[in-house]
Amino acid sequence: MTEEGLPEWLEPVARAARTVAPEQLSRFLPPERGGRQSAVLILFGEGTHGPELLLMERAGSLRSHAGQLSFPGGALDPEDGDPDGDGLLRAALREAEEETGLDPAGVQIFGVLPRLYIPVSGFVVAPVLGWWRSPSPFHAVDPAETARVFTVPVADLTDPANRATTVHPSGHRGPAFLVESALVWGFTAGVIDRIIHFAGWERPWDRGKQVPLDWRS
């Protein structure tokens, strides 16, 4: 894991990864014991419209988080090794390759955010930050698990017109993004929101603008 050679625009993200505290990212923090160790890859690249982020849409038939937009990632396998060592990094890259077909050799890991918790599935998630130094083709490897894989310009994520608040049936409110004909919400939107904030990319937006989870209905 190294920050050497990062583009200048990514340096605020690397700096935030070194200094941010878990409670600054989410109110859902890992329990003292239990939880399934997992990792997601938050992969930044340079596209035709400037800096961009890799996302995927989960298949609608999945048992958990069906149809949601997410980062590539999943639970650690035994071959990934120690979750307190480099196991999280290996898991993030392995899962990204399995789900999107990207070449992990072209990804430079430059940071890891504090681990967070997803109560509904019991996952303890390490957000692994990557720079797509040498981009490679990508696609939905298994349509039974992934509906599509795509990149979103960071400028679209920071555009106030694309930002909103969702209200879960439980009453929990959280940030959301309307991009690429889809609604990004939940864990993924929460992490993107905090990265944008702590990187200094945030622009004033209407927090009173609410979007229902069934916004397409």
Automatic annotation (TrEMBL):
Q: Which InterPro entries match?
A: CoAse, NUDIX_hydrolase-like_dom_sf, NUDIX_hydrolase_dom
**What does UniProt give as the signal peptide span?**
none
Q: Which domain of life is it from?
A: Bacteria
- Which organism was this protein described from? Streptomyces lavendulocolor
PANTHER family (alphabetical): MITOCHONDRIAL COENZYME A DIPHOSPHATASE NUDT8, NUDIX HYDROLASE
Q: Which PROSITE patterns match?
A: NUDIX
Q: What is its EC number?
A: 3.6.1.55
Molecular-function annotations in GO: 8-oxo-7,8-dihydrodeoxyguanosine triphosphate pyrophosphatase activity
Which leading EC class covers this enzyme?
A: hydrolase
Indicate the segments forming the Nudix hydrolase domain, all copies: 34-179
Instruction: Tell me which UniProt keywords the record has, alphabetically.
Output: Hydrolase, Magnesium, Manganese, Metal-binding
Q: Which cofactor does it need?
A: Mn(2+); Mg(2+)
Protein name (record): CoA pyrophosphatase
